[in-house]
Design brief:
82% helix; 71 residues; mainly alpha
Length: 71
């Protein structure tokens, strides 16, 4: 996916989002990332890894995640 395609997709997602807290979190994330190139690189790497994990089925259910976080 190109940068233009990703930006377009993000714009559509943001336009349709109604959760104010999520929108504020996205804004904060982008503001912080623009201030720190290393943070931006790490967040991008994590996002790409997460997408890969989802595509490969390496995910946890809500209950598995809660169980793991409580351990």
């Amino acid at each position: 996916m190109t940068a233009i395609e990703i930006k377009s997709e993000l714009q559509k997602m943001i336009e349709n989002e109604t959760d104010l807290r999520l929108l504020e979190a996205i804004r904060t994330l982008l503001q912080k990332a623009s201030l720190n190139p290393l943070l931006k690189e790490k967040l991008t790497e994590r996002a790409l890894k997460s997408e890969e994990d989802i595509e490969e089925g390496r995910i946890f259910s809500k209950y598995e995640a809660i169980s793991r976080s409580n351990s």
